[in-house]
Design a protein that fits this description.
CATH superfamily of the largest domain: ACT domain
Protein name: ACT domain-containing protein
CATH topology of the largest domain: Alpha-Beta Plaits
Strand order of the largest sheet: 5-6-4-7
InterPro entries: ACT-like_dom_sf (IPR045865), ACT_dom (IPR002912), UCP004897_ACT (IPR014424)
Number of domains: 2
Distance between the termini: 28 Å
Shape: elongated
Organism: Thermofilum adornatum
Domain ACT: 100-170
Length: 170
């Protein structure tokens, strides 16, 4: 999401708690159809659940849904928004995989390529990559689920990138 997107969201919704609702919709890939909110095509999310997750009153959620529906761009955007799919991050160990958690100083192009290259040099297969959007998360992380243990020299190589602050393995 670039700055022009968020500028438009602020123009339509205002600020504070209303923006938090938009961030929550984005974080989970929730779509808005009229006054209803969905995960995918058929799983309906209650306004109360959305309000609890966003930390706001359910009446504020209802107002934001109306504002989204009254704006052509936001209505179209949130109508077609979908979740990215299941994340293996929290279950990687159960499946016999490992998950690298990469923390950054700043968002820069090439971080994913750098990490992927360091893993590829040791013939380590990447099963999934989840990159948190810095416009949604205060401290975005890159999660890389791999098929086997990661040698320390790969971690050392990854840490050579100037934008990478820390790497941990879960």
């Amino acid at each position: 999401m670039d700055k022009s997107f968020w500028k438009h969201v602020e123009e339509v919704l205002g600020s504070g708690k209303r923006i938090q609702i938009a961030r929550t919709l984005l974080k989970y890939g929730l779509s808005v159809r009229g006054e209803d909110v969905y995960i995918g095509d058929k799983v309906k999310v209650t306004v109360t659940s959305l309000a609890e997750e966003a930390g706001v009153d359910r009446r504020v959620v209802m107002e934001v849904l109306k504002q989204i529906n009254n704006d052509d761009f936001l209505r179209e955007f949130f109508l077609h928004l979908r979740p990215a799919g299941p994340s293996l991050v929290s279950v990687s160990r159960l499946l016999g995989y490992r998950c690298l958690v990469v923390e950054i100083f700043e968002d820069k192009p090439g971080i994913i390529a750098w990490v992927a290259n360091a893993l590829a040099e040791k013939d380590i297969n990447i099963l999934q990559v989840v990159a948190e959007d810095p416009n949604i998360y205060e401290e975005p992380k890159l999660y890389v689920v791999v098929s086997q243990p990661v040698p320390s020299e790969v971690i050392e190589k990854i840490l050579q990138h100037p934008a990478i602050k820390r790497v941990s393995i879960s």
